[in-house]
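Handout, section B. The chain below has 456 residues.
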Amino acid sequence: MQQSKGIVVVVDDDEDIRLALSMLLSNHGYQVLEADGPKALARVTAQHKPGLVLLDMNFRRDTTSGFEGLELLAQLTQQGIATILMTAWGNIELAVKGIQAGAADFVEKPWSNAKLLQLVEKYIHRASPLSKVSKQNQASNTETWVANSSPMKALETVIEQVADTQASVLILGENGTGKSLLAQRIHNMSGRRNAPFVSVNMGAVPDNLFESELFGHVKGAFTDARENRQGRFELAQQGTLFLDEIGTLPSAIQPKMLRVLESGEFEPVGSSQTHTADVRVISATNADINKMVETGAFRRDLMFRLNTFVLTLPPLRDRLDDILPLSKSLVSKFTAKYDKPDIQLSDDVVDVLKSYSWPGNVRELSHVIERAVILCQGLKVLPSHIMLPTKDIPDNNPENDTLRPLDDIELDMIIKALKKYQGHISKAATALGISRNALYRRMEKHQLEKEDFDIE
């Protein structure tokens, strides 16, 4: 009998796709295992050490955004398992996100059999690239954490006192300041560091799925609940649960969140069996949570459970002493990621970086440096590689008034809708003729937050 070339796991909720890939790969000497979703994948990887995973980007919970695929990719990356992403809704932005998150490659459905086999052959023997990316990501938790400026030094002092406690922490700060990085840092400095760190972006969860996302559900609890599903509190058992954009938590779910924070008890959707969670909760928001409490949008007693300690991340414009070391650290990170030689920042580039206001904060700086490293063909990053936005610079040439880039028009319409409806996502999305999740994705693309607008 011919020896297997290696184990490939096909993860897709479409049975026909799993069958087609299984037949194709089996006929070419691979041992193929199938999984129809996250839970089945967890069982397979617990029993086998696959050489490669072919991972669909979307499942029943969310059929277009790719968020579920990226979440699973993060888990596979931590395990050092090479992964090729698949989606019928492929686009360059999603592909880049996947590659940046550690995917070996990306294919769009319908695939070319020849190309797919070539990719499988290329990556089946490379368990190391994902391990390498994972190590880079782990290292980046310290490499990109810079505290040279006075505001960051003061914050670091508080972090050292708070991290190794069981207290809940609420992280405040503008979009892109690094709230998720700070949450991971607190976890790594705590006694729970060897247990799971589970993160969920509350702003990306549909309203009707919040309870299932947090507490899980049992089979048959609602339409499409075809199997039991663990919630985030159960997945984070004995570890840390990071709830980003906590201000978007619906009022109907807030009492249940309060209960689990007070007693540790919860029930999955559709179940009468009480579960107990041993979880430390770190939450984050860039909303004015006190104003939400005053208007009744957020429970006061829940806020008190979440904000035992409040840590505020300063914007990058107030951390001028951190810009250069952050930039150097990011250059090192991305030169390693893209197998570039040692690249340095030219003096002119340093001046450009320090003179910009960085409305997108550290996240924007990271994107700018990554792009510059990719564009750099020599050993110095030059000002021409630093492609900062110029939309704030007025254009007084009337000849340019008739035609504008589509992205600019889209941005203007989103801003107008959000201002008109005072940051109310559902109303703005309806006015624009798109779904709530689609509006969130476009806001993320343009680095917009609803808290940037006047919310009464």
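Note. Residues 7-135 form a domain with the Rossmann fold fold (CATH 3.40.50.2300). Compare this with the example in section A.
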